[in-house]
Design brief:
- The structure is a single chain.
- It is built from 5 helices and 7 strands, in the order E-H-H-E-E-E-H-E-H-E-H-E.
- It has a 7-stranded mixed β-sheet with strand order 1-2-3-4-5-7-6.
- By secondary structure, the chain is of the alpha+beta class.
- The radius of gyration is 15 Å and the shape is globular.
- The protein has a single domain, classed as Aminopeptidase, CATH 3.40.630.
- The longest helix is centred in the middle third of the chain and has 16 residues.
Length: 166
């Protein structure tokens, strides 16, 4: 079952994410970071346990990120990750975001869900947030992918915004 995360899920979310971080597949997240972003997360619960998580972080009026997608090892291959990403995309649509992106090592997974590759340089906001503290920033092996959800009424399609414009 996919549902919005609650504060009682924070430890399980951190453990899922940090298990991937130990494999150099994600950035480590502290308990405090998870609590601060808890409203961004959706979780997959099985038998009363959180076995998957995914977050949607809003960056600007026209851009969000799908991040922290983590599925417990014994639950992979069951469509849980796809379900969590689809739930995050539905939330992005509800919020009125026309575009979301993901930085990932799992290009094909995201392409099956409608994402398309884009140059890293087209994501200026991302460079100044998580990437700045990533130990792999000078030798990044992730691919940037974007999913267009459609234009928001009344907003021009002028590309991705830079926070310096605010």
């Amino acid at each position: 079952m996919i549902r919005n995360a609650t504060v009682s899920d924070a430890t399980a979310i951190r453990e899922l994410i940090n298990a991937y971080a130990e494999l150099d597949r994600m950035l480590f997240r502290s308990q405090a970071e998870i609590y601060q972003a808890i409203r961004d997360f959706q979780v997959y619960e099985s038998d009363g346990r959180v076995v998957g998580c995914c977050a949607l972080q809003v960056y600007w009026s026209d851009l969000g990120e799908i991040k922290s997608l983590a599925i417990e090892k014994g639950y992979q291959g069951r469509g849980i990750g796809s379900g969590l990403v689809r739930a995050a995309l539905a939330e992005a649509r509800r919020l009125g975001l026309p575009r979301v992106f993901a930085l990932t090592l799992e290009r094909e997974f995201f392409e099956r869900l409608g994402f398309r590759a884009t140059p890293m340089e087209s994501l200026p906001l991302k460079v100044w947030s998580d990437c700045i503290r990533c130990p792999k920033q000078d030798r990044c092996d992730e691919v940037a992918l974007v999913h267009d959800l459609g234009e928001r009424p009344g907003l021009p399609a002028e590309g991705l915004h830079n926070m310096d414009e605010a």
